[in-house]
Design goal:
A 6-stranded antiparallel beta sheet has the order 3-2-1-6-5-4, sandwiched between helices. The chain is 35% helix and 26% strand. It has 4 helices and 6 strands. A hairpin with a 2-residue loop joins strand 5 and strand 6. It has a single domain, classed as GAF domain (Beta-Lactamase), CATH 3.30.450.40. With 159 residues, the protein is an alpha+beta fold. This is Histidine kinase. GO terms for molecular function: kinase activity; L-methionine-(R)-S-oxide reductase activity. Keywords: Kinase, Transferase.
């Protein structure tokens, strides 16, 4: 487990600044693709030891690939399948220390070893998920989860 998992060094303060940057970037913007694109780029720039950061959007009863940073990814994920589909089904964050131990894990990138997926809701309905993968086992801790959920809560206000 990493003591510091952000590029600047003080995890809590860094996340607070990241959330302020997200709000500043999205204030007044209405295009969802632009908002999600900048959100994924911001997280990719901010986090260390990650190999994929992006969004899957809920479309016609499945998740469909949205804006992301990283290698090409799975395009569609069925409801309840893999870490992303499970996050939608359960309506809560999935923090997986070792994806190879997760039942039904969908291996879009063989280099990924841990993952965190935060569901995104708009007007009480599933909008999609924020998905972050890492080549490091047990990369994401409780602090990451707390602040990534806050990041998503801020993002939801602009979608």
């Amino acid at each position: 487990m990493f003591e510091t998992t952000t590029k600047a060094g003080n995890k809590e303060k860094d996340y607070e600044l990241l959330i302020k940057q997200l709000a500043a970037l999205t204030e007044g913007e209405t295009d969802e693709i632009a908002i999600l694109s900048n959100a994924s780029a911001l997280l990719n720039q901010f986090l260390t030891e990650v190999n994929w950061v992006g969004f899957y959007l809920w479309r016609q009863e499945e998740l469909v690939l949205g804006p992301f940073q990283g290698l090409p990814a799975c395009i569609r994920i069925p409801y309840g399948k893999g870490v992303c589909g499970t996050a939608v089904k359960e309506g809560k964050t999935q923090r997986v220390a070792d994806v190879h131990q997760f039942p039904g894990h969908i291996a879009c990138d063989s280099a990924s070893n841990s993952e965190i997926v935060v569901p995104v809701f708009v007007n009480g309905e599933v909008y999609g998920v924020l998905d972050i993968d890492s080549p490091i086992t047990n990369r994401f801790d409780e602090t990451d989860q707390l602040y990534l959920e806050k990041f998503v809560n801020t993002l939801e206000k602009y979608l």
